[in-house]
Each structure stands twice: as structure tokens, then as C-alpha cells.
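Supplementary Methods, section 5.1.

A reviewer requested that the exact input to the structure prediction be made available. We therefore reproduce it here, unchanged from the version used in the analyses.
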Amino acid sequence: MRRLWALVAGVCLVAPALLPAGAEPRPAATIVIDDMGDRPLEGQRVADLTVPVVCAFLPHTPHAPRQARACHRAGKDVMLHLPMEALNGGELGPGGVTLDMTPERFRDVVEENLDAIPHVAAVNNHMGSLLTQHPGHMTWLMEILAEAGGLLFLDSRTSPDTVGKQMAREADLPALERDVFLDHYRDPEAIDRQLRLLLRQARRDGTAVGIGHPYPETLDVLEERLEELADAYGVELVGLEELYGRRNGR
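The structure derived from this sequence is encoded cell-by-cell as follows.
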């Protein structure tokens, strides 16, 4: 049974490091790798990263259970990357939720998706530019996440009109939102620029969340540059719970 975030620090997550009394925490960034579960080699590269990235798995993909366990063993947070209906009508794949679903069918699909990913501790949206704009459907989702143990919701912000974070807060759930997409363009130089943008934002605001994908180009940059750049910018790379605590002054 999943336990409430607010009650047990570090359940299914990396426990936050203790700071000396009176010490100010460094700026912090969290990097989420979406769309995991389909690519065996790239998924292993994510699990092998020496920094605490978050592994977000599409439900019912062939390698998701094994890779989720590998990421968990490596001390990385595991997230359900929940397919949601988009404005462009893009194909959602297995486990997608749509506006035409009844509340009962919506619940069944989301619960099946949660059960399909071992060690799941949070949820973010895959696509969803349409569904995340609808308070009713997002309220259904938050009710399910609350019943599943108070899982954190990360709004990927695929629409400027999303109400995801608002609905999560109204349900008293921990919630974050994406600040920077790392690899909209699959070019190493562009990814490097976006990574620097993420770290600059973390340094400016105290925290920042970036989202990327298990593309070879993205993983090359993360493997070769992430730790070096984080040190250069004075930014600590942390998991979801630590970032949520810092963003909310806890």
C-alpha cells in the first residue's frame, strides 16, 4: 500500500540529505525523463546515470516493469507518465484517458496504469493539452491519486491553460510543474542550451524542474555534461520530494 508523502519522507524516493543547522540549501533542480518503457538500451542508460533523475514510464510498455525496478534500485524516483487526450488528437497508446470516458472507466484505467508501474511515487501527464484544461476530469484524477497514497502530481504544462496543479492543490496533494523542456529539438547543442537554461532558472528562483526524453542525443548530453554544469552553476540535482520541499519552504 502506498503511503502518504506528508507522513513518511523518502517512501519510494531518495531521502533528502540533512543540512547542518543554519545552513542554506543550494539551488536545486530536478530532471524528469519521460516516455520510458519502450527503449531497452536507452532505459538502462537512464538507470545508470549517476545523478537522481526521475524516471517517468508510459503504462503497459514492454520494458516498463523491469526498468522501473532498475531505476528504483539505483535510487531514482519512479513516476507514471499518464497518457491524456491532446488537442491535436494524437495517438495516446495503451492506458490513455480521454474526455469521453465515464468517471468509472476513467478510474479503472488510471488505477490499472498505477498498478502496472512498480514503485510508482508520482504522476505526470503525457500529452494532455486538452484533458488538463478540464477541471472535472483533473479532479477525478486527483481523487484517485489521493486514494493511492497522496501521490505527487507534476504538471508537464503541455497547455498554457492547464488546471492540473490547481486541482492537485485543491485536493491537498503535493504538486509541481515543469519549467523547462530540454529536448524539443533533438540537437546536442540545443539540449545543452536548455540544460543551462534550467540551471540558471534554478539558481535564480531556488528550484527548477526540467523534462527530457530517453533520446540518444539527450542522454549523451546528460552523461557528459550534467554533473559538470550543475557544479559550475552551483545547483544541486535532487529528487522530487526534496525539490517539492524546497519549493514550498519545507
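The two ends are 25 Å apart (CA to CA). These observations are discussed further in the main text.
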